[in-house]
Amino acid sequence: MSIFTKIINREIPSTIIYEDEKIIVIKDIKPLAKTHLLIIPKKEIPTINDLEEVDRELLSEMFFVAKKVAKDLKIDEWYQLHFNVWEKWWQEVMHIHMHLLSNS
Ligand code: AMP
Q1: In this structure, are residues 25 and 38 in contact, taking their beta carbons and an 8 Å threshold?
Q2: Which ligand 1 atom is at minimum distance from the Cα of 90?
Q3: How many separate domains does the chain show?
Q4: Which residue of 6, 15, 38, 62 sits with most ligand 1 atoms within 8 Å of its CB, as the best mutation to test the pocket?
Q5: What's the confidence (pLDDT) of residue 39?
Q6: Distance from CA of residue 69 to its chain's centroid?
Q7: How far is it, in rounded angstroms, from Cα 11 to Cα 9?
Q8: Which residue has the least CA distance to atom 20 on ligand 1?
Q9: Is residue 26 in contact with ligand 1, taking CB distance under 6 Å?
Q10: By alpha-carbon position, which residue is closest to atom 15 of ligand 1?
Q11: Gyration radius (Cα) of the chain, Å
């Protein structure tokens, strides 16, 4: 079970910004910008390389949630979205998540 699934299950604490039946958005514990959020599907998919056809809609939903959260937080003028894929270094948590970073 990934650390993000433990957060989703409320087994470990986190600052939750948004949640619906498929997605949760939390504050990153080690922010790299003034706002650093993680948009996480509740389905535990290890990496982008593990995506399947059935996940198309879920991935699309993640972008719409990013847009909504950025608008709600009034940081929608300037922000970055990114995924890391590389388990040896860049990807620390093996449960896909989109980073949303903004300094506004
Ligand atoms: P990545 O390198 O793309 O896998 O990013 C994983 C991110 O998860 C990092 O930016 C971490 O700071 C963040 N992170 C790890 N554990 C937690 C946690 N318990 N709560 C919030 N963010 C976390």
Answers
A1: yes
A2: 2
A3: 1
A4: 38
A5: 98
A6: 11
A7: 5
A8: 29
A9: yes
A10: 29
A11: 13
What is the CATH classification number for the domain harbouring 77? 3.30.428.10
Using DSSP, state whether 38 is helix, strand or coil: strand
Domain hosting residue 72, numbered range: 3-102
Residue 92 CA to ligand 1 center (angstroms) comes to: 7
pLDDT tens for the chain, 104 residues: list them: 999 999 999 999 999 999 999 999 999 999 999 999 999 999 999 999 999 999 999 999 999 999 999 999 999 999 999 999 876 667 789 999 999 999 98
pTM score, two decimals?
0.96
Coil, helix or strand at residue 55? helix
Could you identify the residue written with the tokens 């198309």?
A: 56
Measured from the Cα of 7, ligand 1's closest atom is 19
